[in-house]
Each structure stands twice: as structure tokens, then as C-alpha cells.
Amino acid sequence: MNRHIQPWQRLLVLAIGSMVFAVFAPTIVQAANTPTLESLSETTIKLQISIDTTWVLLSGFLVFFMQTGFAMLEAGLVRQRSVVNTLLENFIDAAVTVLAWWAVGFGIAFGTSAGGLFGIDTFFLNQLPGADGSYPLGAPGSTAAINTYTLFFFQFAFAATASTITTGSMAGRTDFIGDLIYSAIMGAISYPIIVHWAWNSNGWLGKLSYHDFAGGSIVHTVGGWTALVGAYLLGPRPDRPPWGKLPPAHNLALATLGTMILWFGWYGFNPGSTLGTANPGLIGLVTINTTLAAGAGALTALIFLYVRTGKWDLVYCLNGSLAGLVAITAPCAYVAPWASVLIGFTGGISVVLGVSLIESLHIDDPVGAFSVHGISGMMGTLSIGFLGQAELTLNQKAGLFLGGGFDLLGIQMLGIVAITVFTVAFAFLMYGGLKAVGYLRVNAEADSIGIDAYEHGASVWPDIYPVEEVSKLQDQTKISENKTLEEQ
């Protein structure tokens, strides 16, 4: 039979328990290992590395998710006949780049420096844990306090971005094998060399205190110039409208979704480039600057084009936001928030004028890749030389407009010129070689039936544009060509 426990009995048990704890607790505490300053310091370091690793990985995941944004944006802006090709190129570029980056690119970028020009080791990512189970940190050319594999992944996501930029500018007429080849070359050689110059701790630009926090010139300018050279050597898409008037976008809903994904992914691109959480104030500054520039770029491009045309243009609003994001990528950690608004404003203006300039040169850039990434990347990198805060820059020097003289601006100009000259020369060599062997532009037959049908035998909307009808059109084209040959 259970008896009801009286309240005084509960109090008695608690009192006895407290007496026992008071007698024996000191003995238990003394028996434990007494923490020392060394053990506390080691624990703190391990905890910081764990937090930083988590931060960088999550940021890297966001940057990688930007591949989806690029795919949706480009698929939305190109014509229906090349959507499947655009989607596949965006997808496969990441697959090709990760293998090229693993085999060669990461080593050239962050390996032991040869004269500040390129790395000579750390190829194939063969760093394994030591006997104590600890993984190696960083790389010979990186001081980041994260393990090598985490650094590799984060930087791979950036490399994939540089390669993907080119697909939009060259959409609708690039040979698919050629796309695989140039994506591999960019991931293995051209992009990593620029990374080494600026982000390797022994790179020649880095030693000069060249400022590019998250890749405005290293990623976007390299991708933009490479894309422009490719578009120039390819020639225009078939049956496009007269110069000065772009073909209508295939699906503005996809383009809008892609842009919003890219804006979201930029919160990994820029804040993640801190490569750690030791300075949360800096992360906050970078995040705010990124957001302000995107907003300023979108609004400026929208209003500027309305003044010119009397229409509220969605495409230019989207590209304006991207131009603002690209423009703030290099200076996001070196300028005050008011300056980021000015930088975004400049990006919104430059993207509209840039598209007009490229059209006037008769270069077919379907998504405005050079105007968004090339021009805005260079402009944003130079803005550090004008608007950099002495309290934030690496060499504690202010920009020209803030009383710092020409020192910082001169270094930024030198870096932009060097990166541009190398990238353009390399791109002409790379694409020129592909053109010489017949792997740059798709077969002329694709111009008449569409690259999706010719390269992939597919249509993004098969119920509207059936592949069977495309096959019939292809057969009719061959019959017509045969008749022409017989008549000759």
C-alpha cells in the first residue's frame, strides 16, 4: 500500500542530500583535472576553427547555389530554341570545373608560389590527416584558419562562377564540346593564375596590397572579359533583330527567379569571404554594403531606362541589381555604407550604357554578361581607390576622394590593367585554338533548326515546340541542301 508522503518528509530528504553534496563535492572537484591557461587556449582555438569551418561551408553552399541562379537567369533571357543547351552548359560547367580545380587549379591558385605568378604544388588535393587525426589547415598560399578541404570547396564555388559567366554571353551558338574544353581550361589555368596573383599570400598583386575582398575583379572581371572575347569570336546568333534591339527574353519569370537566387547567394559570396567569424562586425558591414548596392543598382537601372524609353523594364531592373552586386563585391569590406549606395548607383547606370556599347560594337551578348560582370567588376574594384576608408583598407590608406591621395588608386588601376591584359590575351588564345579546330561555333545546321534540336534532340517546351517537328524541319533542310547541290 502506498502511503502519502508528507511535506516535512520531502524537506528532510532535501536537507540530507544537501549535506552529503556539501561534504563530498570539493573532493570530487579536486579529483578532476584542473584547467590551465594552455588547455583553455587550445579549447578556444579548436572551437573557433569549428565555428569558422561551419561558417565557410554554409557560405560555400550558398555560392554553389548561385549556379542555379545563373541557369534560371540565362534560360529565361535566351530564346526558346537554346534553353536546353543553356541549362545543360550551366549544369555541366560545375562538374567540369570541380575536376579541373581539384587536379590543377587549386594548386596553381594556392600552392607554393613561383615568383608570385603561380603555384607549383598542392595538386590533386592529396593532403591527409596526420598521425593524431588532425587535418591540415589552409594551403601554402593561404593563412585561413580552416582545413584544406573546406578552403578547397569554398574556392571551387568561386571558380565555377567565373566559368558560368561565360555561358550566358556565348549562349545559343557554342559547340558543346568546345564548352566542355574551355570550362576545363578556365578552371585549371586562366582563373587560378589570377587568384594566385591577388589572393595567394605570396602573389605579386597581393604583396602590393591590391584590394579585392570577394572577387569583383578576380572572379567577375575575368569571367566578363573571357565571355566578351568568346562572343566576339563566335559572331551573332542567327536571325537576331537589328543591332541595338535585343531578341525578346524567352521567360521573364525564370529570369526573375534566377536573379533573386543570385542575390540570395551573394550573401555567401561576400560575407563568406571573411573566411571566419572572428570579426562579426565586419560580417555585418559586408552584408549591409552588399544589400544596399543591390538595391541602388536595381532602382537606378529601372529609373534610368524609364527616362530613356518611357517603359519600366524588368530585364534592366534585374541586371541593375546584379551590376550593383558585382560592383560592391571587391569593395564590400573597405567602404562605408553610404559609399556602397553610390557604387550601386554607378553600377545601375553603367550596365545600361554597357549594353548599348556592346550592341554598337556588333557583339552579341544575350544576357549582358560583360556589362554586368566585366564593367561593374572593374568599376567596383577601382572604387576602392576613390572611396576606401583608411580604417578598413589593408594598408590603412584612404581613397582619393577621402584625402588618401593616389597610392591606393594606383595599385587598383595596376591590378585591373594586368588582369584585363592577361585575361583577354589568354581568351583569344584559348578560343582561337578552339575555332581553328572547329570546336568553337556549333555546326551551321544548328542555326537553321535551333541548337537544342541539333545538339540535344530536345525542346524545353515539347508540347509547344515538339522535337518531332524539329526533326521534320531538319529533314526538309537536308533535302533542300541536296537539291541545291544537284542544281550546282
TrEMBL record:
This is Ammonium transporter. It is a multi-pass membrane protein. The keyword Transcription does not apply. It comes from Trichormus variabilis (strain ATCC 29413 / PCC 7937). Its main location: membrane. It is found in: Cell membrane; Membrane. One of its GO terms (biological process) is ammonium homeostasis. GO terms for cellular component: plasma membrane. The keyword Glycoprotein does not apply. GO terms for molecular function: ammonium channel activity.
